[in-house]
Write a structure and sequence with these properties.
The protein has about 550 residues and is of the alpha/beta class. About 35% of the residues lie in helices and about 25% in strands. The strands form 8 sheets. Strands 17-20-21-14-13-23-24 form a 7-stranded mixed beta sheet, sandwiched between helices. A 6-stranded mixed beta sheet has the order 10-9-8-11-12-26, with helices on both faces. Strands 6, 7, 27 and 28 form a 4-stranded antiparallel beta sheet that branches. A hairpin with a 2-residue loop joins strand 4 and strand 5. Helix 10 packs across helix 11. It starts with 6 loop residues before the first helix and ends with a strand. Bound molecules: NADPH dihydro-nicotinamide-adenine-dinucleotide phosphate (NDP) and 3-phosphoglyceric acid. The site of NADPH dihydro-nicotinamide-adenine-dinucleotide phosphate (NDP) has 28 residues, from helix 8 and helix 9.
């Protein structure tokens, strides 16, 4: 069996790293943003470690990138109070600014953010091990998301309308903010996923408390001053620390109006239930998934393999949209396993900045142990590792394993592995696959691969109310970000996309004015189409 990677050669020596990508000296970050000022935290700090190790004469050394404030509940609550004061029951300056002015603030922020591209991209590589190409993509995609959000809002603002509700009654819809939003995101897209809630929340007039993801936390530091300088005091507040100490206190206070959380459903539900008045809380949740790839007997196998390789293994499988289980019809099982295994062998392991690298170290401490445990469980119950070297590991690096046959008794059948394990379930009767989707706790997306239009059509009908997106002959993915992105069951609450997020972070107020010949002047004064500070939209939006 040839070795897919040589653990001894995997981690570099410092002087072998191109200068532009070498880690900076560790930073001791004490600043956090509250009420328009960068406060200096005097308390304990949390160390930020890279998943990357450096080779040294006497062994390997994990790189320490710096430290961030471990705020306590009181410090977090002070940030929340600043957001509450800036919102001021909807009477504050920010929720009452004209849409165009709020857009100008966001544009000012975006310009400052773009200046930090190199710093943020480098931290994405060092903090979460994302390869250079994908780190650059994450940064650029986040900027595009902001640009698209601004574009969508400008277009809506132009669409302002009044309409006749019924004879004698004129209606106007105002899109108003909801209050104070708490925004949190996952470590696999610490920039992009958090900004898909943060920016729409702000631009629609809410004030925000934001806690960066658990890894990919230092990369917010280059943006702290841009946030401070671009928004009025208290509109955006950024806290650091352990969620259980900081965010829990915010939820318990009852002062959070919108809970925008992208991460695990366990974290979301633990936090949501702390709110004393959950009926007052709007939630926008993007959560775990176990997206199946379903391969029918008549199929273009080369396309399946190429889509499934990136679908299952890009960023080492650490995407909510990753294909996390493959159902392969028995007629094509053997050639599929051979082709997938051969394709996998071409994925290059290495360091994030190296050209063409696909497989990189994993940021989560304990992840390698977790992957070993679920793999061992599958093997104990009858699965085999199909690809040479599958499951080999060294420090934070885990070489992907293709496992077959995976059966319902194994953890990998139902559990979200969020890592480089590819479980394959051979099937003969497609009813088994339908049953899997219906019984699953998750419902984000699925992929169907096949050439039989009738059978695909039948499956699309069966699955349309089970998942948020069905991909035909293509892997699962979120983009383009203008497409609706949601899920069912434990996978999501609400829909996030450029347009949908604007809805999510606002609510419609109907102004209904009865008019007669005598009060026409009053009516046109009350329903001034464009002089209102509020976004007025048509009924449908
Ligand atoms: N559907 C979607 O749009 C997406 C979903 N995901 C999903 O996100 C997950 C990976 O992200 P990950 O960062 O591990 O998610 P986690 O849920 O572990 O963490 C997200 C945030 O929540 C905090 N947190 C978690 N549990 C609690 C709690 N009980 N009390 C207080 N705070 C809490 C964490 O902080 P701390 O650790 O400090 O407590 C962190 O800031 C995967 O399941 C993936 O599928 C990822 C991307 C997109
Ligand atoms: O999968 C995820 O974690 C994000 O939602 C982004 O999805 P993408 O990698 O398919 O764009």
């Amino acid at each position: 069996m040839s070795r897919p990677f040589d653990p001894a050669a995997l981690f570099p020596r410092l002087h072998d790293i191109p200068e532009a990508y070498r880690p900076d000296a560790p930073v001791e970050q004490r600043e956090y943003l509250v009420g328009g000022e960068l406060r200096h935290w005097q308390g304990p700090l949390a160390q930020v470690r890279s998943p990357i190790y450096l080779a040294e004469d006497d062994g390997e050394r994990q790189v320490v990138l710096g430290s961030t404030p471990l705020l306590d509940a009181d410090a977090a609550l002070a940030a929340l109070d600043a957001a509450v004061a800036a919102y001021d029951h909807g009477q504050g300056q920010w929720p009452n600014l004209r849409v165009a002015e709020r857009i100008a603030h966001v544009e000012a922020f975006l310009a400052r953010m773009r200046e930090q591209r190199a710093a943020v991209v480098k931290l994405l590589m060092w903090e979460i091990g994302k390869n250079l190409k994908d780190s650059e993509k994450e940064f650029d995609r986040t900027c595009d998301y902001i640009v698209d959000t601004i574009g969508a809002l400008k277009e809506l603002d132009r669409r302002s309308s009044r309409f006749e509700l019924e004879q004698g009654t004129l209606g106007q819809i105002r899109r108003v903010p909801l209050g104070v939003a708490l925004c949190m995101g996952p470590y696999n897209y610490p920039l992009n996923e958090t900004f898909t809630t943060l920016i729409p929340a702000l631009i629609m007039g809410n004030t925000v408390v934001f806690k960066p993801a658990k890894f990919g936390v230092l990369l917010m530091r280059p943006l702290l001053e841009a946030f401070r300088d671009s928004f009025p005091p208290g509109v955006i507040n950024i806290i650091y620390g352990r969620g259980r100490e900081t965010v829990s206190a915010l939820m318990e206070s009852g002062k959070v109006d919108v809970f925008a959380f992208i991460g695990t459903h366990k974290g979301a539900s633990d936090l949501k239930k702390l709110h004393p008045k959950p009926h007052r809380l709007r939630a926008a949740l993007g959560l775990d998934a176990k997206n199946p790839g379903i391969v029918l007997p008549e199929v273009d196998l080369d396309n399946v393999v190429s889509e499934a390789l990136t679908g299952a293994l890009s960023f080492n499988g650490q995407r909510c949209t990753a294909l996390k289980i493959l159902f392969i019809h028995e007629d094509v099982l053997q050639p599929f396993l051979e082709k997938f295994s051969a394709g996998l062998a071409k994925l290059k392991p290495g360091m994030p900045w190296e050209a063409g690298v696909a497989l990189t170290p994993l940021p989560e401490p304990g992840k390698v142990e977790y992957l070993k445990a679920v793999m061992a469980d599958a093997i104990d119950k009858g699965a085999r590792i199909i690809n040479p070297g599958g499951g080999e590991h060294c420090a934070s690096f885990f070489y992907p394993a293709l496992l077959c046959p995976v059966t319902p008794q194994m953890r990998l059948y139902g559990e979200e592995q969020f890592g480089p394990l590819v479980p394959v379930v051979p099937y003969r009767d497609v009813e088994q696959v339908i049953d899997y989707v219906l019984q699953s706790d998750f419902g984000q997306q699925l992929s169907l691969f096949g050439n039989d239009a009738q059978q695909i059509g039948r499956l699309v009908d069966a699955f349309a109310n089970q998942v948020g997106r069905i991909n035909i002959n293509a892997q699962c993915q979120r983009g383009p970000d203008t497409f609706p992105f949601n899920g069912r069951k434990d996978s999501a609450e609400g829909t996030l996309s450029v347009h949908d997020a604007l809805r999510t972070f606002s609510i419609r107020t109907l102004v209904a004015t009865r008019f007669t010949d005598d009060n026409k002047a009053l009516v046109s004064e009350v329903i001034r189409q464009r002089s209102s500070n509020f976004l007025t939209t048509d009924y449908i939006f």
